[in-house]
Amino acid sequence: MLFAILIGVLFAFIAPLVYRLLGRYVAILMALLPLALFSYFISLYPRVVQGEVIIANYTWVEALAINLQFRLDGLSLIFVLLITLFGFLIMIYASAYLQGDPLLGRFYLYLTLFMTAMLGIVTADNIFCLFLFWELTSVSSYLLIGFNNTNKQARVSAWQALLVTGGGGLALFAGLILLSIASGAHTFTGLLAQKNILADHASFLPAFVLIMVGCFTKSAQFPFHFWLPNAMAAPTPVSAYLHSATMVKAGIYLLARLAPILSGPDVWFYTLAGVGSITAILGAVVAVQHTDIKAILAYTTIGALGLLVMMLGINSTLAIKGMLVFLVAHALYKGTLFLVAGAIDHCMGTRNISQLRCLGEHMIPLGIAATLAALSMAGILPFLGFIAKEMLYEATFTTPWLLGIATLSGLVFVAIALLLSYRLFWKKSSKPTPPRHALSIGLYLPPLVLGIAGLTAGLMVSSVPSKLINGAMQQIVASHSNTYKLALWHGFTPVFWLSIGTVILGVSLYRFLPFIRIRSVGMQHMYKYGPDALYHRAFERLLHGAKTFIAKLQNGYLRSYIIYIILFFCGLLLIVMWRDPSDISFSQPAASLNETQLYEFVLVALVIAALIYLLGTRSRLTSIVVMGLVGYSAALLYVLFGAPDVAATQLLIETLTVVIFVLLLHKLPAFTYLSHQFQKYKFIAIAIFFGAVMTYVMLLVQARAVDSDLKKFYGAASYEQAHGRNIVNVILVDFRGLDTLGEISVLAVAAIGIYALLRLNSEKGGKP
Amino acid sequence: MRTLIFATAIRLLTPLFLLFSVYILFRGHHHPGGGFIGGLICSLAFVFHALAHGSEHTESTYFRLSVCQYKANGKPSQLYYVWSWMQLAIRKNHRNGNHKRFHVIRLRPIYLMAFGLLLAAGSGMVGLILGKPFMTAWWLPLELPVLGSLGTPLLFDTGVFMLVLGMVLKMVFTMKKE
Known about the structure:
The complex is a heterodimer of chains A (about 775) and B (about 180).
Chain A: H1 2-22, H2 26-49, E1 54-61, E2 66-72, H3 74-97, H4 104-123, H5 127-145, H6 152-183, H7 188-193, H8 195-199, H9 204-218, H10 227-230, H11 236-245, H12 247-262, H13 266-287, H14 293-314, H15 317-348, H16 364-378, H17 384-396, H18 400-426, H19 441-459, H20 464-476, H21 494-519, H22 531-553, H23 558-579, H24 587-593, H25 598-616, H26 620-640, H27 644-665, H28 677-703, H29 710-722, H30 727-735, H31 737-764
Antiparallel strand pairs in A: 1-2
Helix pairs in contact in A: 1-2, 1-4, 2-3, 3-4, 3-11, 3-15, 3-19, 3-20, 4-5, 5-6, 6-9, 9-12, 11-15, 12-14, 13-14, 13-18, 14-15, 14-18, 15-16, 15-17, 15-19, 15-20, 16-18, 16-19, 17-18, 17-19, 17-21, 18-21, 23-28, 25-26, 26-27, 29-30, 30-31
Chain B: H1 4-27, H2 35-53, H3 55-62, E1 64-70, H4 78-86, E2 99-106, H5 109-129, E3 139-144, E4 148-151, H6 152-177
Antiparallel strand pairs in B: 1-2, 3-4
């Protein structure tokens, strides 16, 4: 199974190569992969529905418990089958939709990568593994939304989706880590075993909130829903695959997976039911105001996701079962409708409803697909959507406010379904919209297959779908009492009458849709305060703030950088010394002054004299030579104190510095005092301050000599283990060789940077 | 700075400098010295040479393998066709009188840096290949008379040597050219 989950990565990266070799026939190969995976997982179906859990492990970083651990159970199986089935159809559809696009190979790369990431999410057992694939879906979604990279709207939307879902992913990761610290387990199986400890743990609530943020951003719940409508800038196959059927359901999947662990306290019900119902209302209310087909579908998707979260919040056996049925039904009909919308866009050149009339005349197969999906969406009898809606009403029947929200969503779904099937395709009109080109088979076959799948699933609900859903139920609800059997017909119950009433009221709502759209114009100014506008404002503020800050900090003057560094460093030192005050006696250092040799005094006097002279000199050459003198004196000091390696390095560096200065000397402008006299005193003060702090620190270090075994260890081990008598060098190249490797890498990068700076300046015609 | 004495002295001293720098590199394991100091000495040799003769001259003396091709009765030689066919980074440089000059190999400082980094990282890989942690030292069992024993730390030090050399040369040559 490990192979089946990860093979997609390989396929993804050969896609552009295959595209170069085979042209558009790359679609065949890329569609075969999901088909093969689908058949593979179908072959596991009999084992999984009997309650068997299939496990695949690969040890990666054992010490940190970061392993690739996968488990396929009933809940995963539903998602896996949806992902691979959709993957197959979308791959075929995309080849027709993006026909002639030179970047088709790259598109397949992103799409296959996404599919693999999605498979990874729904089968991951290890939390790190889950996070890895979770963020991979965010990244591949970013790449797919921004696929039309010449379009600014697409780029901005892609950014937004990445920031929102990627940021949510980080929150989720933090939450999962909190859970794993609290319980000591790194897998969902382990967390489930420890759930009694978790429920009373202090970090339960923070972890809960963080995980909720992660799931809500991914599944576009209020107030993070705004990225989903904007993500419709993606090519339609992407919208159908990512933003209706699979990726936005990842949050739902994780909530369902964690439901047994987190759903004990009341906070689960209030958070999920609250957020879910707000999102459902929002989706329903906004959906009826739009005329762009994709926008309508996006908002109904948000509404449906809200309903799913709401049902998870109720967390009764019936609600969970209804949630699963609705999830499958929604994926099937919404995917179909998205594909239909894409085909219409492709053939007609517009997605605006008011410009489209009587499309059934030219594209009958597409009309049939749309009608099948719409009937399922509206919840008409033999379709899977009907069963989902019945169960939704049944589950919320005892709580009036939840029932009200469910009914409102149902009404809007009926109206939208009528709009997208009857109004677009079959309503008679004197002027049918002519298509730009004929419908190709790749554009209508996938939605037709999906639409028929929705019908068959409804008709055969008591066989295969029922078993699948029962398998998933075992994972979510511990004591699974099989009271509510999935069946098409339950008799004339109150719920059935409610269902009929919804359809009738929905038809009348459809009549009022144009009227609502006209009246809703007044609501436009409300969006200025919506989360989307807030996001954009915050983003601009952030950029602006960063720009101002950088302009202040990096003003291009070397002296200000040095001042910042020194002051920051001194500040840190002072904070440490203030927190941990220690008094040192100056008697011992003063006593050691007496032992100072004469030549040491001479050297120090030489350095001080040179420095004083340096301050007064006005010639650049003199100052360089005097600086060299200071450096050589320091080197001599090292020699006297028995550090020949350091001394040699210092000597050579000084020589090099002087030579390089001399090289550049004649190119520098004349030596002038540009800064104000006051500036000079400021610099002197800072220098003295820095010197004083460093002297104090040195005295402190001397006073508290640490008795360490390091010296002894290196002295002994240097020759015996490392075959070298020069301890300094042995440490550099052997004991701490990795540090040196890092340092020389930095050196190389710095050299390239210097080169770039010099070249850049000369190309601009500036001074070197 | 082009004085005759300085230029002549540097021309004679540069090979000495270079030899000394290599000696320092090998000596580093037992006595003061090592790759960093050796690299600095080596680069100083070239920097002084560049100071005395100009960086162009230094580059063409030490960092280029050039091939001269004389025109025999007005036609390019057979060898020229072979080279141009092999695409061996042939650049036309001089075209005075009856011969052309091609640079077959041009050792840019940045290659030195890259090679040094590769050598340093590669010496660490030896330990990895032998199934031990990265950068585990591995020594040849024999002891050479002047150079001492050979092992991966020496290789690492050579990497440091070349990187330092390349870095200083890159900076100085770039500054000189402006």
